[in-house]
Amino acid sequence: MKKYVLSILVDNHANVMARVASLFARRRFNMSSVTAATTCDPTVSVISIVTEGDEHNLEQIIKQTRKLQEVKEVTVLPPDESLLYEMLILKLAFGEANISSLRDIVEVYRAKIIDLTSSSMVVELTGKPSKIDGFLEVMSPYNILEMCRSGIIGMSRGNQSDWWKSGR
Amino acid sequence: MKLNGSEIFCEVLVEQGVDTIFGYPGGAVLNLYDALYKYQDRIRHIIMAHEQGAAHAADGYARATGRTGVVLVTSGPGATNLVTGVATAYMDSTPMVAITGNVPTSLMGQDSFQEVYITGITMPITKHNFVVDRVEDLADTLREAFRIAQTGRKGPVLVDIPKDVTSALAEFLPAAPARNEYHTEIDIDSLDKVAAIINGAQRPVIYYGGGIGASGAGEELAALMHKAGMPGAYTVMAAGVVSSEDPYSLGLVGMHGCRTSNLALDHADVILAAGTRFSDRVASVPDEFGRRARIIQIDIDPSEVNKNVMVDFSLVGDVKDVLQALLPRIQHTEHKEWMETIARWKEEDYRPEDSDTVLKPHQVIRKLCEMAGEDAIFVTDVGQHQMWAAQYVRHLKSRHFISSGGLGTMGFGYGAAIGTQIACPQARVIHITGDGSFHMNLNEACTAVSYQLPIITIILDNRVLGMVRQWQTSFYGQRYSCTTLDRRTDYAKVAEGFGARGFQCENMAEFENALSEALKCTGPVWIACSIDRDEKVLPMIPGGCTCDSIIME
Question: May I ask the CATH class of domain B188-348?
Answer without folding.
Answer: alpha beta
